[in-house]
Amino acid sequence: MNKITRKQQVWLVTSWEFMHFFKWKQEIISKLILIAFALVVMLWQHIKDDQMTVYKIAVPNHVSNLQSHGQFEFIATNKPFEELKQQLAQEDSWDALLVEAPAQQKDTQVKKVSIYSKDKQSWLNELEQTLNQQYTLQYASSLGLASEQLALLNQSATFEKHYLDDTIKSESSPGQATAIAMLVILSVGIFTSFGQLFVSITGEKQQRVTEQLYACMSPQTWIDGKIFGQMLHSVKAMFTMMITAALGYAFTVVVISNKALNFSIIDWALLPWLIPFALVGVYLCTAFMAAIAAAIDDPNHSAKTSIMLLPLLPMVLAFVTMDSPSGWALSFLSFFPLTAFAAMPVKMALIDLPLWQPLLSLTITLLLCFWIRTSAGNLFKMGMSMYGKEPSLKDMMKWMLSKS
Fold first, then answer.
1. Mean pLDDT of 286-297
2. What gap in Å lies between CA 26 and CA 30, rounded to an integer?
3. Per-residue DSSP letter, 36
4. For residue 360, pLDDT beyond 80
5. CB 310, CB 151: distance < 8 Å
6. pLDDT tens profile 35-50
7. How far apart are CA 399 and CA 404, in angstroms?
8. Number of neighbours of residue 122 by Cβ within 10 angstroms
9. SS3 for 264?
10. Distance (Å, rounded) from C-alpha 385 to C-alpha 211?
11. CA distance 88 to 356
């Protein structure tokens, strides 16, 4: 029988670790739900009526002169209020009834307007906005103000921001929204890896499973497989999160807001950089959490559980410092090995950088990943071999710096 190679062993552990938490039936059902959701949005986009619905609003003659606007048609009538109200309840002649009461105080011209409808409808809010605009224009006209003068009163000045540093992207750029979305999605992947690694490694340690597997493969091979297996889960969770967010956005825009679908809020030029930084970041965080989990003896009372949350700190720091993209803090975090995977994409989203900066940041992070891989193997080997006593932080640092 031929002995399997180390790469085959790593792939064996990777596939086992991935399939340990991967259930085909549940995944297929969840993806079918997402596909059905997408089909609903697409069908709605194609079958919805493009013609705007016109709502008829009955207005007694004594009410101020209102001009039909957009989807609202104001129809004057001399019928009594009670008759109009009865018609509204029993017939389809009107969609709403408008009643205007005189100003309650002599020194003000603010009027009280009552709107009657059969039931609660979403277009009533739009009707209120339309009426408010028309009453504002009528009041301005009574004061002798032209519409242009009224517009100046509502917005007396416009503001534009200009920066001497021409590398800073404009505020209309979708970079900031893309950077925030990246931090959220990356956090989802790290939380996924955190939960499953904690359950997997601590459970195997208590059942003394890994100790038996050391007879057929090295600790480094075992930890490599576990890291790659959990990375696949993290990538799957992040991909699902992106698809779900995109479908939610499409549903809100197309179905609820009744607008055309537009993904201009995404900085598409930044996406090719986000993928390698995200993969390197997930690997770095997964390797760190696997090493710490191996040093936990009792998962219910260990103080080291909180240490596993440290990989979330780079996302928090990047989010806090993104308001000053040219500042020293974000610049330092962009090249610091432990935070570069989160900070550099944020900086790229806000500032136009030369090519050598993201390449240098990615190279530094890859070198750290190579070192953390070996250190995680040492910690995993020693941590999984200890029972009844957790290693101290001093011991853990010693094992991380060990060559074997």
1. 78
2. 6
3. H
4. yes
5. no
6. 776 666 566 555 554 4
7. 8
8. 8
9. coil
10. 7
11. 70
